[in-house]
Each structure stands twice: as structure tokens, then as C-alpha cells.
Amino acid sequence: MSKKGKIRVALGSLLALTLVITCVAVYQSGSKSRANEKEFVKENKEDIVDQAIKTEEREEETQDVTTTEVEGTREVEDSNGETEEEVPAPEQETENTSAQAAPAPEINFTESSLMEWPVNGQVVLDYNMDNTVYFPTLNVYKLNPAIAISSEVGSPVAAVANGKIVSVVNNEETGQTVTVDMGNGYQAVYGQLKDVPFQTEEYVSAGSVLGYISEPTKYYTKEGANLYFALSKDGVPLDPMQYLP
């Protein structure tokens, strides 16, 4: 081989060696960069996760503090009596209503019982089933199974004893009329009423307002406004005055 050929071979080998060294250096540099990038990405991910966890913890702490403050506020309001009452559930309302419902009064009228006066006034027509009584409006004498107690229109009429409403009817002679069962076969009849607040089968206590005195019917115009009041035992008329104080 000539001298020039040897020089060319040496230069080529040197150039190849230089190229190899350069490639190795570049490869190593790239590997380190990728490793650093991986570590950087890993660190960023860990930072993001840590930050998310810390954010959730702060939100939970904030919710706990808010809940505590709200509960504390409720307790203060309760202690001051300013908190609105909670509306009970329908079942509770039904149970409370049943528990608070007034029990039916005892119905036990007897021969020795005394009645309360249904209204304050004078007796203008007496009871009499033995002899006839004069009725001014009708201008006749006839038996009378009741008494008529004068009163003013609108005056309240009280139940004379505990009882249960048997009927509420409109009668041509006695107007709106209420019949009350007082027990043991005793019944009281209240006539010439208006604005009766009770219905059939309802219970009344002694002194309860059964209604109010109405204008007299055409059968009692001369007697004036009055309460028609009758008492009976097993359907047989009784003198109400025998049971009034």
C-alpha cells in the first residue's frame, strides 16, 4: 500500500472513531435528559395528587366548621325560643289529634237528676197534660207537653244536661228543633232555635250552647220570642219544672 493510501485509511478510522464517540456522548446525554424528564413528570404528578388531597381535606374541614356553626346557631335559637316549630308528620298529627280529642261526656240522667236552666226568662206557657192551657196566639185551650220560656232573639240556649244529639229538624210549629238523648230513656226537646252548631250523633255537655233563640213561629207570635222546651221519659211527657232548680 502506498503512503497516501495508508494516510487515507488512518484518517477514515480516526473520523469513524470520532463519530462513534460523538454518538455515544449524545446518546448518554439524551438518556440522562429522558430520565430527568421522567423524574420531573413523576414529581409533577405527585405534587398534583398531594395538592388534590390537601384541597379535599380543606373542603372537609370547611364543611365540618360550617355544620358546627349551623348546629350551634340552632341551639342558640332553640334556647331563645325563637326557632320555628317543626311541622309534625301526618301520622304524628293524627296521633296527637286522637290523644287530644275530648272524651264523650257521661250520659246518665235519672229521676233524681237536676237540669240546668236552658235560658234565663219567665215561663209564659206552663206544662200541663191533665188540664188545658190557654195559647194566646191560637186563642185556644189545649194540653201542653212542654213549657215556653220567654227570651230575646239571639240569646244562647244551653244544654240542660249531658247528652247525644238525636235529631235536628225544622218543625212548622216549633221551628228549628233539637232533640237530645240524656240517657236512661230521658230526652229533652229544644224548639224555636237558629244557628245550631251540632249534628246528629254528636255529644253535648251540660251548659254547651245548642243554638240561639229565633223569631217565634206563627204559633207563638203573641207569646213573643221564647224557647220551646219539653222533657220525656220513654216517650211519656214529663213536667220540666220538676227537674229544674
Fold and architecture overview:
- The chain is of the alpha+beta class and 245 residues long.
- The protein is 36% helix and 28% strand.
- The protein has helices at 3-80, 90-100, and strands at 123-125, 128-135, 140-144, 146-150, 156-158, 163-171, 175-183, 186-194, 203-204, 209-213, 226-233, 236-238.
- The strands form two sheets. Strands 1, 4, 5, 6, 7, 8, 9, 10, 11 and 12 form a ten-stranded antiparallel β-sheet that branches. The protein has a two-stranded antiparallel ribbon with strand order 2-3.
In short:
With 245 residues, the protein is α+β, with helices and mostly antiparallel strands. 36% of the residues lie in helices and 28% in strands.
Distance between termini? Answer: 163 Å
Tell the overall outline. rod-shaped
Q: For the CA atoms, what is the radius of gyration? A: 52 Å
Q: Number of helical segments?
A: 2
Helical fraction: 25-40%
Overall SS class: alpha+beta
Percentage of residues in DSSP E strands: 25-35%
- Which blocks of ≥5 consecutive residues have pLDDT under 50? 35-42, 65-79, 92-99
Number of strands: 12
Please state the average pLDDT score: 79
Q: Mind summarizing the main beta sheet?
A: 10 strands, antiparallel
The succession of helices and strands, N to C, reads HHEEEEEEEEEEEE
